[in-house]
Every structure is written in C-alpha cells, then in structure tokens.
Queue: 3 jobs
Job 1
Amino acid sequence: MTTEERIENFRRHYEALRAEIGKVIVGHADIVENTLIALFAGGHVLLEGVPGLGKTLLVRTLGEVLDLSFSRIQFTPDLMPADIVGTNLVMETPDGRRVFEFQHGPVFAHLVLADEINRATPKTQSALLEAMQEHSVTAGGEIRRLEEPFFVLATQNPIDQEGTYPLPEAQLDRFFFKLLVGYPSADELSEVLNRTTSTSVPSASRVISREELLEMQRLVREVPVASHVQNYVVRLVQATHPGAEAAAPVANQFLRFGSSPRGAQTLILAGKVRALAHGRLNVSFEDIETLALPALRHRLIRNFEAEAEGVTTDDIIRRIIEHVPRDAAAVES
C-alpha cells in the first residue's frame, strides 16, 4: 500500500468513526474529534463537566465502534487500588494444594472508562499512574504488561463540587488532552430528548478492528514535522515558563508553573493526527494552534493573582499564542 493510500485509508476510517459516534452523541463535535485524535496518538483523555452531559455515553459509544475490550470503573471514596489493578487470591487446586493466583482487575482492558475519577481518594487515583504511563501494572512483586492499545478515558466533575478530590499535577500531566464538556444548545437538547425519550434507542456499530487501529497509530508516528513547525512548538511551550528568558508576559503575571515537555510531545503527536485526518502528510501551524487548548490547559498552574481575577488557563494560552510569532526570525529581530 502506497503512502497516499495509507493516508486516504486513515482519513476514511477517521470520518467513519466520527459518523458512527454521531448516531448516538448529539453535538459535542469538538469533543468527539479531540477524543479520536488522542486515541490515534496513543494518549489518554480527561473529560470534565457537570453530571448528565453525556461524558460516560461518549466513552461507552467509543467502545462500541472499536473492536476492543472495554471495562468501566466507577470511582467512589471507598474504592481501593486492588479494585483497579487486581490482587492475588488464595485458590485451591484439584489435588487440595493452595496457591496464589492473580485475579486481573478492570484496568486489564484496551479501553478503560474511569468514571468520576475525582470521587476516589488520591491513593486510589494513583493506582492508574503506572498503567497510564508505563502500560503495565505491578502487583505481588510482578510486572504485568497491558495489551495494546491501552486507552484511559476519565470523567470528572468540577472540583468545586462536594465530595471530590482534585487530581494531583503528576496525574493530570499524564493525560494527553483535557476536554471541557459544556451544556448543549437548545436544538441539541431537543434532539437529545427525541433520541432518548422514544421507543427507538440509537446504537453504534463496529467500524475498525484492533489491527487497523494499531496500523493507524503506527502511521501517525511516521508523519514528518517540519523544523520550523517543531521550533514553533518549542517556543510556545517555553513561553509558558514564568521567569524564563522566553516567557510571555502573561505567563510571568499569572502562572506559577508552565507546561512540562509532555505538552510539547502532545502538540506534535496531536498535530500529526489532525494532519492525517485532513488528508495531509505535514503538520501545519494551524494544527498546533487549534490543539493548544486541550493539550496545555491542564499543564499550566495559575498563581493567586490569576485565580483572584478569574483568569483561566484557556485565557492565558490564547494570549501566549498571540504573543509567540510563527516565524522564528521575528523573535531574533
């Protein structure tokens, strides 16, 4: 298969997935698109929004359209790490001997829905850290690999609601994207009512196989990135570091800490997926700027002044994009 055919095949499968998910999910086009971008880039997604906006339905639908094993973990304050990764149990063999046997937890699936992740205690939240970063689980002194692809989709309610535990920065940084799920418009809400209060319940069908998904992920890694685009990503991320020579004024004013290197990695990988989804084999400046909000919003830590004035991380990122020129020569001059 030629490169052009592989790109067209990627674009066709991508559009088929969007269309199939659209049979169930009303609106949220940006949320669906960014979730698929993270999936093909091999990253994890954090969905934030108040209850009842369809976050869990989106993840369940994604499991239906992909030929992957799927598990759901409902996070609650009494959930323990062993409830996620599994534990060793004493089992009796046919000849009467007792042996330890590892019982796999729900994390041993291709697609894992961590529902309301900020309802669980930090100890339990951290049980996902190794799985998300290393794609492995250590239990009983043994490292067990997770089968590829491994994709975590976590939902959380806004942290100012009662009974929630804010995710620590180390775990937030392991999410590829953080997506904010907003309220539907009047037309979208009307369509939701039509689909959910009648006798016919919409459903989605399988679109691509596991092997096809892995092939699409491999193609993403092969997309070249021009040096001037990569340099732009570097300058964007460096502009988020308060006190640094390349820091943007808004970062010095409103940020305590800027993005980690994972932010730059996310922008490059996500840009590659978006380029392929549009039938291109090159990452553009527009790709990077379009994806900056979901890639960086959870990696910037605001200071007291920003919180007091109600300046959001999205506001800061937009001003940083305006500050950083696309042309590196403009910086030197």
Job 2
Amino acid sequence: MDRAFGLTDCIRLEVGEPNFPTPQHVIEAADEAARSGKTRYTENPGIPELRSRIAEIFTEDTGRKTEVGDVVVTTGAMAALYTTLMSIADPGDEVIVMSPSWPNYLMQMTLLGIRPVTVSTNETNGHVPTIEQLESAVSVRTKAVLLNSPCNPTGAVINQTQMARIIDFARRADIYVISDEVYDKIVYEGTHVSAASYDSDGRVVCIHSFSKTYSMTGWRVGYAVAPPEIATLIRKCQEPTVSCVNAPAQYAALAALNGPQEIIGEMRDAYRERRDEVNRLLSSSGISALNPAGAFYIWVDISSSQRSDVDFAMDLVDKHQVTVVPGSTFGPSNEDRVRISLATTPDQLYEGIRRLIEESRS
C-alpha cells in the first residue's frame, strides 16, 4: 500500500471497502442529528433507540432473545472485537484462530498479550475448521474460538451443520465463541448462519458492523451482541478507550436500519456478478482461485508464478500498477496465495485481473 501511494493511476485491489456511496437518507440523518444539537456524549453503550432496534433485528435473525442490555455500539467492528477480547481473556490466555484469517485478529491479540493458537484450513475442508482440529487446539488456557463467516479472505461460509457442531464443541470445552459476522448480508448462495442461533447457554459473542452492509466504512459504527455479563465488561472496557461512538454517526446507523434495504441486495448482486467474471477470467487463463460463497474477496493461487506471495505482489505493483494482498498477511502456510477485493469498479477490477494474469505468466 505504501508503494502504491507513490504511483499515479494505480488499480487498488487490496482494500476491502465498498465502492458504493453511503445511502443518501443515512447522510441526511446524520446531518439532521448534528444540526438539531445531537452532538454531545451519548450513553457509553450507544443511544437506546439504536440498541433497541439492533436487539429486535438480532432476535428476528437468530432466534436468540436479545435485550437492549446485550448490545454495545462500538467504534466499528474493530473496537467490538478488541473490547470483547479484553473482556474474555487475560494476558497469557489462549484464543483459537483460523489461518487464513483477517490479520487484525492476531495484531489485537498481540497488543493484549493473548496467545493465538492457529488452526490451518484449506480447500479440502472448505476453509472451515474441523472439530478434530479444534479439539487438538484446546488447552487449559483456552478462553475462546474466533470464527469469521463469511470469511475474509477466503469467502468461506459455515453452514448450519458445521456451526451447530462448532458451538457444541465450544460447550463441551467450556469456552466462548467470538463470531465475526460483518459480512453476514453478503452471501451469494444459501443464507448466513449466525453462531448465536445455536447458543443455548450464553457463550457466543457476535460482532457486526455497518461498514460493509451499508457502505459506511468511514462512519465507524459497529456493535457487539453478547451475554449480559460479557456485555457489561465490554461497556466497561469501552469507557477508558473510546468513551462512546460519535452521536451523529449513531443516528445515521439507526436510519440505515430503519430505511430502505434495497442497497444491500444491489451491492451483493454487483459483487456476485464481479465474482463470476473474475473467476471466468482466471479460469480461462489456467489460474486457480476459490469461488467465494460470501464476502467480496477472491483467494487466488499464484504458485505457478514460482515466486513468493510478497515478491509477486511487489512485482505486480512495480510493473503493472496493481495492488493485491500477499497471502502470508493472513497467517502461516498461505505464501502461494494473494487476495483481491471485488469492491472496486468493474472496469478497474477486470483490467487489474488482466494485468495479474499477465504477471503470472512472466
């Protein structure tokens, strides 16, 4: 990214940010809130009307009865994850995390002194951890397993049977499940399965965001839905870190939930169309890539280039002005992969893929 910033007309396929504008009614709600004086501190866990609406929707979507007190509005999903980890684990404790997975998981654990225990997934198991893998990763220091479905970077989606088995495993191991579900509305085939749907004894914390669903990345609004005792700790951890989410952004988030929902389907359909065309371009050129069931990324096999992921990515920037993410960014054993984002304009995306194909042949 640093190298790309110094180039003109660089095609950016590394950033996971929707290229769609924030819906106009969401912007207007923030403007109205600011102009009407709603610019002061809010309650630490968020404005009551937003938390109440989130609780209603979460109950409808998962079947798990959710109260306002279970919801904490946070500065994006990143803050929800960070304060959840702070609440569940002490320095020296362990959390099971997948590889490949979003690199900020490991970075946050490093900051908190938590030891990540990595479970490698692959195409054979659909990039979903097996119960045998999870059982072998558990120790007396394990406090939680961290899931991400749909997954960044693979696009893997955990189905009902798999999710039920994972929650049953967590129950037997007596650990928490932290379920990162920020891409829950971007599922191409089938439906999203929330970990909360199988939570019968209060061990699942779900992490959500407005960033991907409503194209509100810069607004920095997310939330955690947690069992009451964990929600209380998350609120306490939020007070000395960010205090509360800025007020106009919370009213914008409320407008997003209460307003027209067509934008969600429109973005999902656009990503699906891009996914299919990118896979067609890669396949016709003999390059293997996963067909993601959700999220908006393509996990591309660049082993035929005979280079490491970092070397390939740097060559792509220097020679073709295209940025991708090296696979090793997402954990060990991924040095023959790169991740590209579908969240860019089709003309730029397809031109970037053509340049990637050219570089893979060089």
Job 3
Amino acid sequence: MYTKQNAVSHHSRQRGSWLINVIIIVCIVLVVAAILLPTFQRTHCSARMSDCQSNLKEIAIALQIYWGDYDATLPSSALVSHSKTWNRNDFKKFATMRGDLSPVNRPQTYTQVLYCYMKNNDILYCPSDLSDHSKASSQVSYWWKCAIDKAWYGGKGRKPCHIEKDFMYNADEIVFYERSSFHEGNTSGLRNGDQINVAYLDTHVKSIAIKNGPSRTTQDPTAPGEPMHFNYDFNSNKPVVDSRGRAIGQTPATQGDKL
C-alpha cells in the first residue's frame, strides 16, 4: 500500500538526487573553468603583446618617415637645450616624457618630434601600462635608447652619429624599448632577465629577454647595461661581438666606449 509516509520518503530521495546532480554539475563547471582560465589569460596576454608590438612598429616607422624629411638626421636630446655636450637630465626628458602633443615650435621630447608622423598618441602606450597617460609630464611606455642619443654627440675621439647611415648594424640596433616588463605584470622598471618588446632602427620589432641588464630593477634610462646601452659588456669594458668578431649593434660613437 502506498502511504503518505512512502510519498514523503520518495520526494526526499528525489530532492537528494537533484541536489547531488546540481553539485556534480557545479563541480564539472569549476573544473572546466580552472582548465580554460589559463588559456584565456594567455590569449588575452598574447593579444596585448601583439598590440604592444604594433605600437612600437608604428613609432619606428614614424621615426623613419621623420628622417626621410630631414636628410636621414635623427632627433636627439640636443633639442631640449641645444647643448653641444650630452646632458643626463635633458636626455631623460627627451627619452621618457610625453610632453605637450599640441604643435610646438621647440619640441623637447621625441614624442613631440614624431607626433605629426604618428596615427594617434595611443601608440605611445603599451596596453598593459595602466599608469596615468593624461599629463604632459607623464611617462610614455616606450623609451629612447641612451646609447643612440649619446652617439649623436660623439665621444672619445669618435665622430657624432647624426644620420641613419652612421650606424653600423641597423637590424641589431635597438632604438625604442618598453620601460617595464609590462606583459610579465611588472610596472616598476627593468632588470636582468626581464622579457620586453623592442624596436630596431630598421623598424622591425621583437620580444627579447634582457641578458646583460641591471641586476636590480631600475627606472633610470641612463643606467648601464641592456637595453639602455644594448650590446655593451660593462663587466669587461668591451663591446659584445658576434662569431666573426663584429661589434653587435654598436654605433661608431659608442663602440668600445663605456657609456
């Protein structure tokens, strides 16, 4: 005989079975999410890395167009004070600051120099750089390499490098680099081993691991080592050479010099 007690027991078993099924489904969803989340994160990071490299490419092309208009002459921190000798503070302003991007008669940053050759000012910032970009005094994501600027002034008996053809190996000569390893979650500067995007004088872009950089994190664009003074071995005071003994990525003005 089917009693009221049997009915209650039947419904209790149904509710228990339903609850177990819900728990199983939730567990399956959580497991699948845990498996797919790293993939989604890698995809998102890869997209930002690609956008960052695209930005650097556009800036490098803007530089190439600029020197096409000025007899292959590169800009330099001499624009800040018109000094005939290299000045650290002038360089820091030239290499790192956004500046006022409206038309100016006397540009003081590389971004001001190249702005009219760029599609927009968004390319000055890595998608993973979440710092304030709104002020003229704010730092851009991509800095001008110190050795390139010092080469413009010459040094230690070597002629100044004012024009593009003065540089030895344009495909090995970094001109712009990320100021932090943003894609590794670091926003505090650079140190040895960090992975960053860089642009070369021939306009190609790639991701590199810093091999001879600062041992401690730095935000100083004049610090010794990669990428500020790329391919210079500060331990031996000699330029890094390839298998044929050529100085890699060195300029005539900086080859063999401790910058």
